[in-house]
Amino acid sequence: MKQFYFLIFFVATFQMYSQNERILLHGIIFSDSLTIDNVNVVNKSTYKGTVSNKVGKFQIFVRENDELQFSNIQYKTKQITINKIHIQKKVIEINLAQKTNELEEVVVQNMAKKLGLPNADKIPLKPTERKINFYNKGGMVNQLYGLISGDMKKLKVLQKRLDEDSILLDNKVNVQIIRNHFTDDFFINTLQVSKEHIDGLIFFSIPKGIVFIFEKERYLEVVDLLIQNKEAYLSSIK
């Protein structure tokens, strides 16, 4: 009898844990077809957040019914509720609308002035202007770290790590998008690739230009590339 009650307790505990377990959601943020960096992404259900990188991509842990909030001073705040489709696909695309209310921008700028924030007097740049400005100046991380430490060697190491993290995040999002587009059935039944090796095959094909071809919607070429790389990939993991 004690074993029976223990079994019931174990099953109930496992179910509760499964329901509470969160998955890593990958996402990309746009506005008028341009990706947006420095967007605050907050899971209001866990009070944890992150920021989109320089190509608009992010990742955050979520489960069904979690509330995500996306905010940036130049865009209207947006909230979404995570549903089953988000959980299944493990990837999400967010489109933000740029603020057009001049009064609202004035209020934000005035608040920034009172707080003594840098560049408070500057008019917010449009997405295209902001991206050009970012690449021309090399990024705020370089300037800030250089002022504080003056150690260019450490700065180069830090920048390399940031770039590597950004590339890894980009690749994870791209892999998930390609996988979702073709579906697991295609990889398993048509390409004869086991489920646990799908991501690996796509990652293996990234240096061959699969992301560029996919973004150009040349899907037949994507399939050809996957077929060409399959044997080499499977041989590399043996």
Summed up, what is this model?
The protein is an alpha+beta fold and 238 residues long.
Which labels suit this protein?
single chain, 238 residues, alpha+beta, Immunoglobulin-like, 4-stranded mixed sheet, 4-stranded antiparallel sheet, 9 helices, globular, disordered N terminus
**Largest sheet data:** 4 strands, mixed
What's the end-to-end separation, in Å?
48 Å
- Would you identify the CATH H-level superfamily of the domain at 17-95? Immunoglobulins
Q: Strand percentage, roughly? A: 15-25%
**What is the helix content?**
40-55%
Number of helices: 9
Task: Provide the gyration radius in Å.
Answer: 22 Å
Structural class based on helices, strands and sheet pairing = alpha+beta
Mean pLDDT, to the nearest integer, reads 76
- According to CATH, what is the topology of the domain at 17-95? Immunoglobulin-like
Order of helices and strands: HEEEEEEEHEHHHHHHH
